[in-house]
Amino acid sequence: MNLELTYLMNSGFIVREGGLLLVFDDFRDPKEAVRRELAKGFDRLYIFASHAHFDHFDSHILDYEAQASHFIFGYDIRRTKRAKAFPAEKTQYMQTYDAWEDDALHVASFDSTDAGVSFLVAIKRTGRRIFHAGDFNWWDWIGDMAENRKLAENAFRKQMKKLAGLEADLAFFPVDGRLEGAMDKGAKVFCAETSVRALVTMHSVGYPVWTPPAGFFEAGREIPVWSPRAEGERRVLSAHGFLA
Ligand SMILES: [Zn+2]
Known about the structure:
Blueprint: E1 3-7, E2 13-17, E3 20-24, H1 33-39, E4 44-49, E5 70-74, E6 91-94, E7 99-101, E8 105-111, E9 117-123, E10 129-132, H2 146-163, E11 167-168, E12 170-174, H3 185-193, E13 195-196, E14 199-202, E15 225-226, E16 234-238, E17 241-243
Parallel strand pairs: 3-4, 4-5, 5-6, 10-12, 11-13, 12-14, 14-15
Antiparallel strand pairs: 1-2, 1-16, 2-3, 7-8, 8-9, 9-10, 16-17
């Protein structure tokens, strides 16, 4: 079975596998892609938010409260005012290095280098594994003081140790245009040190489509890449890569 992917905005995506819908970091959905996806029919809907920043978590996802099996949130969201409106019986907060499961999914969380968590979601029926980084990245701001840049690198590399060897069918990872020449440093190390089989780049609103430069992948380890820009843009991830 293929994975059907829809880009919402920033780090927001829908992943559909059959009747299973996973929504990640839907802070804004100008094309109403989630509503359209629900209208096509579904068995289960899980809504993830990696952390509380406005560009990852927004209360409008409460519109899907009736349809959602679970809201699965990074621990920092619990402390926000917006979180109070979510139904406690179907809202799960995850600490770092936490795990949660039901009959359909197993979810593991990792630490971020910014706020909240990143998620590794395993679909039990098919064994598919999907990683969503949230704001985990090597935030290397080129104009910043050397000391801060070193701290950012250390934080990133420390967390990468926990992710080393990770196997996933698909990873969503930031390649943020604001980082200029350093925008793909985090993604490059992430791809080198894990075994992800396809990469979707995110968190780069307003910047041109990113394509991997020569040398981005280690020799013989190239994987398919999708760098969406238009809200509502869709791809199917098949055995042959991302198909329009
Ligand atoms: Zn962000």
